[in-house]
Amino acid sequence: MKAVGFNQPLPIADPRALVDLDLPDPDYGEHDLLVEVQAIAVNPVDTKVRASAQPAAGAWRIPGWDAVGRVRAVGSRVTGFKPGDRVFYAGAIDRQGSCAELQAVDARIAAHAPATLGDEQAAALPLTALTAWETLFDRLRVGQPVAGAADAIVVIGGAGGVGSITIQLARALTGLTVIATASRPESVAWATRLGAHHVIDHRQPLAPQVEALGLGAPAFVFSTTHTDRYLDDIVALIAPQGRIALIDDPKSLDILPLKRKSLSIHWEFMFTRPLLGTADIARQHEILREVAGLADQGKIASTHAQSLGTINAQNLRRAHALLESGQAIGKITLAGFAPQ
After folding, report:
1. CA dist 149 to 215, 243, 274, Å?
2. Which of 234, 267, 300 is the last residue of a domain?
3. Whether 323 contacts 47, CB under 8 Å
4. Phi, psi (deg, nearest 5) at residue 41
5. Which structural domain range is residue 306 located in?
6. pLDDT tens-place values along the chain, 340 residues long
């Protein structure tokens, strides 16, 4: 099968950072689907793995953790899927990724793809939607109010992939007032179009801007990027006993200032359930099924923003470079493999 991968961590400017490969078809287990990949989306985790992971000697690592495809075969313990079904999923970080013609993925973390969305539009949803859903409802527990706080959430990085779908899910499924951050005119327009009630500038101090909205201190903050840079502002703007979630990887984070307000902090890592085989691993199937339903009902839109062509090393390097530039809005996708 065709695939794109790497055998050493290299800067994306190096043409060896991602290369075209011809590999054997993957084996699949009793809980797995064997999927013919039709489209992928690219996420920051792809760039982090490519830049840091060291495959075993002689081995190739295939990145990619967002895909849409057709089921070719099912494992002996799989229920609810059959060959020919169109599915979407984010996969597992400890398995080979979606930048390949065929991928084995646990059926318990996959779902039928939204019928109303094209392949690239659907591929843009799984990883970020799972991250946003788990953050809102499993980590921040936004359905449980914070006494005395404004029923509002600040989403730092509102125009990014995760921020884009968080805005939509909060609007579709909660009564929260959504305050997104963005700095460029195009990213402000994007966050506004997706449903943010207010957009503030994350290049300026956040707390005074939130106070100026006159809503009161928000109950929740979701920081998708540069949490160490924004933490002092977060502590200043959030209500006492508020809840903070983050998904990035700051080298250090001094949480002692959270004590005075009895703030709680929650790390969301979408891969926890598949990586550790948690007892509720099938919850990701349920979430994706609900996300597909929301998309098909028109309650959320794909955050697909840019297609870079077919799945090959050159195009994937372009996608990684764009993500690493910090200028990407929404999701970047690729679709199909060029014929031999």
Report:
1. 9, 11, 35
2. 267
3. yes
4. -120, 155
5. 2-126+288-335
6. 999 999 999 999 999 999 999 999 999 999 999 999 999 999 999 999 999 999 998 899 999 999 999 999 999 999 999 999 999 999 999 999 999 999 999 999 999 999 999 999 999 999 999 999 999 999 999 999 999 999 999 999 999 999 999 999 999 999 999 999 999 999 999 999 999 999 999 999 999 999 999 999 999 999 999 999 999 999 999 999 999 999 999 999 999 999 999 999 999 999 999 999 999 999 999 999 999 999 999 999 999 999 999 999 999 999 999 999 988 888 999 999 987 5
Q: Domain check: are 261 and 158 in the same one?
A: yes
One domain for residues 112 and 197:
no
Asked if 153 and 263 sit in the same domain, the reply is yes
Residue 44 lies inside a defined structural domain of this protein: yes
Q: Judge whether 33 lies within some domain.
A: yes
Statement to judge: residues 263 and 160 lie in one domain? yes
How far is residue 27 from each of residues 2, 57, 69, 96, 316, measured CA to CA in Å?
A: 15, 20, 17, 11, 24
